[in-house]
Amino acid sequence: MSAIRLVACNDIKRQFAQPFAWILLALTTALLAWQFLIALDAYLRIAPKLGAVPNSQGATDLIAIPLVRSLSGLLMLLVPLATMQTLAGERRAHTLPLLLAAGIGNLRIVLGKFIGAFVLVAAVVLIAVCMPLMLEFGTALDLARLAAATFGLLLLAASLTAIGIACSAWTAHPALAAAAALIIGSLLAMIDMGARYQGIDNALINWLSLSTHLEPFFLGLVASIDIVYFLLVTTLALLFAARRLDSLRTRG
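^ that's the sequence the OP posted. Answer follows.
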């Protein structure tokens, strides 16, 4: 456990010692803040009319959930950028053999890299959630639904981070790792859309889609099958990365 913590802490320090992580956080925060303010302005314009409509939508439906849903799409691009250097950067800098020779173990290295990258991604999610959460001081938010959406978003972020780690393990080129992670993540997200377009519903291909299991969280529904799906994707991707490190260790 100490080895995992050591690898994770080293990656976290290295990330935040470089401008890339701060630029990524700043640009993402600025983009989400712009969307949040536009949604808030639109909501304030129609709020007087909503009061006269029975069972009308509130700030949760019109501001909070759309912002969180927008971030889910943005994570498809952000996470590959955050993970592309994890193992590919080590190989490019020729420091991976030293890490493999430290006697830490392949899976522990992968878990440490995963935690180090996930901290940055989770920070983006929490910053985004804090924006609509501030509306609680002036209006009534559905905090349970917002919590469910945040939990689902963190599960999605974990799965995408694990996929990014796996892609980074299979190449020494960070840009190629980012491109591969982006393609795989986008494919898993859109596979359900393509299946429904062909008239396929409630089939295995629909179940394999990230969006199929993410959408219930936005509706406030937390189901064990959706949690298991994201944990399964995360675990398989991390085991895949560990297997790749094992082959690199064997080849020397």
